[in-house]
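Example record

One chain of 80 residues, shown exactly as stored in the release files.
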Amino acid sequence: MPKVRPPERHPEPLNSSPSFGVRLLLVVVCALTSIIVATVAGILSYSTGTSIPEAVLLAGGAFAVSMGLGLAILTALNLA
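Predicted structure tokens for this chain:
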């Protein structure tokens, strides 16, 4: 008579949302990337002949847009 195997136990499903530390690191990476984007945007704007206040304003806008886009992507992926 063939041996009957017991049914396989499936492992418990992992929690799909990352821990607080991972979420915090993802937001910090998003912020640092946004700072780099803003710096490049400000330098490029200033190099075309705009004044320093205009370049800073443009850099601030670039930071806000890239940070918002990054957080929106993290939220859509259920990571933040």
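Notes: The chain is about 65% helix and 0% strand.
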